[in-house]
TrEMBL record:
The gene is guaA. SUPFAM superfamilies: Adenine nucleotide alpha hydrolases-like (SSF52402), Class I glutamine amidotransferase-like (SSF52317), GMP synthetase C-terminal dimerisation domain (SSF54810). Pathway: Purine metabolism; GMP biosynthesis; GMP from XMP (L-Gln route): step 1/1. InterPro entries: Class_I_gatase-like, GATASE, GMP_synth_C, GMP_synth_GATase, GMP_synthase, GMPS_ATP_PPase_dom, Rossmann-like_a/b/a_fold. The keyword RNA-binding does not apply. ATP binds at S230, G231, G232, V233, D234, S235, A236. Homodimer. The active site is at C89, H176, E178. This is GMP synthase [glutamine-hydrolyzing]. Catalyzes the synthesis of GMP from XMP.
Length: 527
């Protein structure tokens, strides 16, 4: 990721991630300020960071203490490179330490809502009220600002809560401007980006389509491509962009791997044939379910599914276009995928953070991949993709469709995936979705996986008789971008209807539970 080109001619802001809970959120906020941004791990050598010629660098928060022995540090070359730098929390403390100020554990810890007093607005806090509320989460404090820096704000516990040096084009705040609870957070970030760093405001969703169309034309030449089309918004938007670039030299392939939801294949076929003329529907249930026999480990499941997806696309490529004989110009096998930035980050490919789970389309790809990938959305967040979809005029049912993971119901069966278990889960899921839609909550809920605890049984009583069935878990969540999520407070009467219907209508299930875990610490899917 680190060497990837910035789409088009935009200024680049790199967010150096020191293990912040919400580094992705910082990048999103920068993009909201119409400046293109990406995240890099703090372990990336400074020479490589600077080689990308960032217009500004943001140092994120992080769990360590800057003075601890094993604390992730920053190569001080960053301060000598004549690149504007902004620090938040840990990043602010790193700046203080690295530029000759002081950081200490003063015992003055601040967590959550904190009142801040602006002593001097400077450029960073221009037009920000003298008293306002920010979100803090720190145990250490800057006790002395570096020489040449103006201290702009303080809290009751923290005398140095913000500083800037216009001469050096550097600034920092102890608080978290990226979270919504912080008042004027976006305004402060924009003052840094636009007024201190001088970043140009060119990044909008409008230019991404034209830029990608051009890049794809250059990549594919007069070749042909297949698009992995799932029915989800990401692949629909990716397909629409590639279709603009290469027209009918694109063929969309939808794989029914036997783990799709009730009625899904028919619905996708119906909806997409109108938009994309031909849709190649592959029935690969035997292949996938055969390969998954005996597999119980979540990561292994994902790897098997990722591999079988690619094998299916290889076969589809040959069927649609014939064998690729010469991998030279014009005869390369191209595969379009609707991969998004969070897929890349969570698969450990972006910020160099730990691999949380291998998304089938990134970390789950087999090593012997022969396709050249076309992923026009690889740097975007979902809300950005939806904006592009609307701009392209795709139907709103497509643009606002709730996400559904590529591995499908396979990662919602905790235990081995079998045909019978899939039938059970498919029915329970259909009931839950039907009731959610009937309650008019589709747009309020990000998604609501139903999970079958296939290896768990519990005792129940139905019709005066004992049952010994499986529980299902409802996992309704709200989210902005799937990077973080909260459990959705569904109305009780809706939960009651879902529970009653599932236990009445789905033999094998005698208990319905609700997952009330946010992300973090839980993830949205259970595997
Ligand atoms: N059943 C499928 N058939 C063909 N391609 C698929 C299938 N499932 C997933 N893919 C490919 O994998 C990519 C990643 O899946 P993912 O679920 O993240 O995206 P999506 O389905 O397009 O959108 P959403 O996240 O809203 O469901 C898709 O964009 C698509 O290219
Ligand atoms: O295409 C996909 N392939 C995958 O392997 C995959 N795993 C999770 N998801 C979806 O990603 C979002 C975040 O999910 P998690 O909180 O479970 O990581 C949620 O929207 C999940 O449904 C996937 N999508
Ligand atoms: N959120 C943060 O970046 C915290 C920074 C540092 N670990 C502190 O406690 O002060
Ligand atoms: Mg999907």
């Amino acid at each position: 990721m680190a060497n990837q080109a910035v789409p088009g001619e935009h200024d680049l802001v790199l967010v150096v991630d020191f293990g912040a809970q919400y580094a992705q959120l910082i990048a999103r906020r920068v993009r909201e300020a119409r400046v293109y941004s990406e995240i890099v791990p703090h372990t990336l050598p400074m020479a490589e960071i600077l080689a990308r010629e960032p217009k500004a660098i943001i140092l994120s928060g992080g769990p360590s203490s800057v003075y601890a022995d094993d604390a992730p540090g920053i190569d001080e070359a960053v301060f000598e490179a004549d690149v504007p730098v902004f620090g938040m929390c840990y990043g602010f403390q790193l700046m203080a330490q690295g530029l000759g100020g002081e950081v200490a554990a003063t015992g003055a810890r601040e967590y959550g809502r904190t009142a801040v007093t602006v002593a001097e607005q400077g450029t960073l806090l221009a037009d920000v009220p003298a008293q306002h509320t920010v979100w803090m989460s720190h145990g250490d404090s800057v006790t002395a600002a570096p020489a040449g820096f103006d201290v702009l704000a303080a809290t009751a516990q923290t005398p140095v809560a913000a500083f800037e040096s216009l001469e050096r084009r550097m600034a920092g705040v102890q608080w978290h401007p990226e979270v919504l609870h912080t008042e004027h957070g976006q305004q402060v970030l924009e003052h840094f980006l636009h007024d201190i760093a001088g970043c140009r405001q060119t990044w909008t969703m409008l230019n991404i389509v034209e830029e990608q169309v051009e890049a794809i034309r250059a990549q594919v030449g007069d070749g042909r491509a297949i698009c992995a089309l799932s029915g989800g918004v990401d692949s629909a938007v990716a397909a629409a962009i590639v279709q603009r670039a290469i027209g009918d030299r694109l063929t969309c392939v939808y794989v029914d791997h036997g783990m799709m939801r009730e009625g899904e294949t028919e619905q996708v076929r119906h909806d997409f044939e109108e938009v994309f003329d031909v849709l190649d529907v592959v029935d690969a249930a035997d292949q996938f379910l055969g390969a998954l026999e005996g597999v119980r480990d979540p990561e292994e499941k994902r790897k098997v599914i990722g591999r079988e997806f690619i094998r299916t696309f290889e076969a589809a490529q040959v069927r649609v276009f014939g064998e690729v004989v010469d991998e030279g110009a014009g005869d390369t096998a191209f595969l379009v995928q609707g991969t998004l930035y969070p897929d890349v980050v969570e698969s450990g490919g972006g910020a160099g953070t730990s691999n949380i789970k291998s998304h089938h389309n990134v970390g789950g790809l087999p090593d012997d991949l022969t396709f050249e990938l076309i992923e026009p959305l690889r740097t975007l967040f979902k809300d950005e993709v939806r904006a592009v979809g609307e701009q392209l005029g795709l139907p709103s049912s497509m643009v606002w469709r709730q996400p559904f993971p590529g591995p499908g119901l396979g990662i919602r069966i905790i235990g081995e995936v079998t045909r019978h278990r899939l039938d059970v889960l498919r029915r329970a899921d259909a009931i839950a979705r039907e009731e959610l839609t009937r309650a008019g909550l589709d747009r309020d809920i990000w998604q609501m996986p139903v999970v079958l605890l296939a290896d768990v049984r519990s005792v129940g009583v139905q019709g005066d008789g004992r049952t010994y069935g499986h529980p299902v878990v409802l996992r309704p969540v709200t989210s902005e971008d799937a990077m973080t999520a909260d459990w959705a407070r569904l109305p009780y009467d809706l939960m009651e209807r879902i529970s009653t219907r599932i236990t009445n209508e789905v033999a094998d299930v005698n208990r319905v539970t609700v997952d009330i875990t946010s992300k973090p610490p839980g993830t949205i899917e259970w595997e």
